[in-house]
Amino acid sequence: MKILAAGDFHGRKDLAEKLAEQAEQEEVDLVILNGDIVDEENPEGIIGPFVKRNKKVILIPGNHESIATADFLAELYGVTNLHGYYIKLKEVGIFGCGGAQVGLTALTDKEMYDLLKRGFEKIKDLKTKIMVTHVHPADTNMEKFSQWVQGSKGLKQAIDSLQPDLVICGHVHEAEGIEEKIGKTTVINVGKKGRIIEI
Question: Which residue segment(s) compose the domain that 99 sits in?
Answer without folding.
Answer: 2-198
